[in-house]
Amino acid sequence: MTFRRLFTLAGLAAALLIATGASSQAAYTLTQSIVTTTPSPAVLGGTTFTFTPSGGGSQSGSTTSNFNTIDVGVSSTTAPPAFDTGTINYSQTLIFTGSPGTETFSFNGTITLLTGNTGGVASTGTGTVTQISGSGYQVFFAGYAPPSPGSGSGPTVGNLSILVIPAVPEPASVVMMGSGLVGVVGLGLRRMRKA
């Protein structure tokens, strides 16, 4: 086996290792700030909402993930049908660290308390996620699961969630780039031998 073939095989192996490393090292950790609300405290008539960071989390690999970032609790002194209405604005800072980078987002939205329902409390939620600094992730509002004071089995806790898409290089792209580099180096060596 010639030196050129050995060199080419070694280069291809290195490209595969780079691709494998890019895939396996893609991991990130999510940390969150405390939630601020308007009004504060989040009270509308006889209904009180609580907003608690859900503890952050981490994800290995380059897969898209859903994260619950805020746990939402509710209590009400108003007997059904409830006639408390209004909106609560919430805000939270999200920080993603790891591969492929560090990025900070602002998570903001509104919880709207509905009226006239038989369960005592009903609400809907919206949200937006805005990039503040850094790069490496796409983050979107995923949804709101409303809480309920419950009866018999006790209250339930709702949550606000986000969708996270890490911008990790695809292994196939890295292999192609590595193969191209090997080809260029091999061509250079061939020309040097002829000279």
Polypeptide structure, described:
By secondary structure, this protein is an alpha+beta fold. 24% of the residues lie in helices and 45% in strands. It has helices at 3-24, 171-194, and strands spanning 27-32, 36-38, 43-44, 47-53, 57-60, 65-76, 86-98, 103-113, 123-134, 137-145, 158-166. The strands form 2 sheets. Strands 1, 2, 5, 7, 8 and 9 form a 6-stranded antiparallel β-sheet that branches. A 5-stranded antiparallel β-sheet has the order 3-4-6-11-10, with no helix packed on it. Helix 1 runs antiparallel to helix 2 (171-194). The two termini are 22 Å apart.
**Whole-Å distance between the termini?**
22 Å
Fraction of residues in helices? 10-25%
SSE string, helices as H and strands as E: HEEEEEEEEEEEH
What composes the largest sheet?
6 strands, antiparallel
How many domains make up the coordinates? 1
Q: How large is the count of helical segments? A: 2
Computed Rg: 26 Å
User: What is the total tally of β strands?
Assistant: 11
Q: What fraction strand?
A: over 45%
Global shape: elongated
- Given as residue ranges, the uncertain stretches (5+ residues, pLDDT < 50) are 15-25, 171-175
Please identify the structural class as seen in this structure.
alpha+beta
Mean pLDDT, as a whole number? 77
